[in-house]
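[Q] Does anyone have a clean structure-token version of this?
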Amino acid sequence: MVSTSTILTKDRTEVSAMNVFAEAFRRFEHNQISISFSGAEDVVLVEMAYQLVGNKISVFSIDTGRLHPETHRYIDQIRKHYGITIDVLSPDPIKLGKLVEEKGLFSFYQDGHQECCSIRKIEPLKSKLRCLDAWITGQRRDQNVTRTELPQEQQDVAFSTPNHPITKFNPLASWTSADVWQYIRAKHVPYNPLHDRGFASIGCEPCTRPVTGSQHERDGRWWWEDNQNKECGLHAQNVDAKPVKVIEKHTQT
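[A] Here you go.
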């Protein structure tokens, strides 16, 4: 049982997120739910979960094979800092080898990022979610035009099946980038050093670049594509017409 008594005096935004975590951990056992950690500012998720249940949290990261070296080192730093196990997922080497053999390492600049992301990200996630009933993401409404209606909890229609419904929790949905960084600094949370080099949003090395102060954080992701396409597929329902179950009842003040 997760107690929420320790979070009632915190900032409203933080309370909202912590209540989502508390509800998620109340409904799902440790082996049924996991946190998706990209090695970027979504480290906030790890910190919040740690506050509630200590190192008894399940965390996974997707190693696409194209991450920055700094991100690899940072993921290991977080593993040691919190004393947790991070399940690092990798793409199928046969499928990946076929893509590289047929199209090379940079086909996404011409063909779009979906095919590469499907092999490097979506397939590993799909395999992981077969073993889970729920997952927690660091998505926020201010990140992209595809996320402006993002709820704090939803049915994951992209990966659910008739026999295996999956719940997705987005505790930071109502947060802004400023909220995230205020929290990181206030809690002295370790963060990826790429952020200090202008990388506001961090993904694969060939598909991520620094942004200027006047640019939106997602302008550095897949910059050669339209904003409407800036979803890799992990959150495909953000641009899917399928209905989603919206439940936003956990916010308390």
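[Q] Thanks! Anything notable?
[A] The first strand starts at residue 33 and ends at 36.
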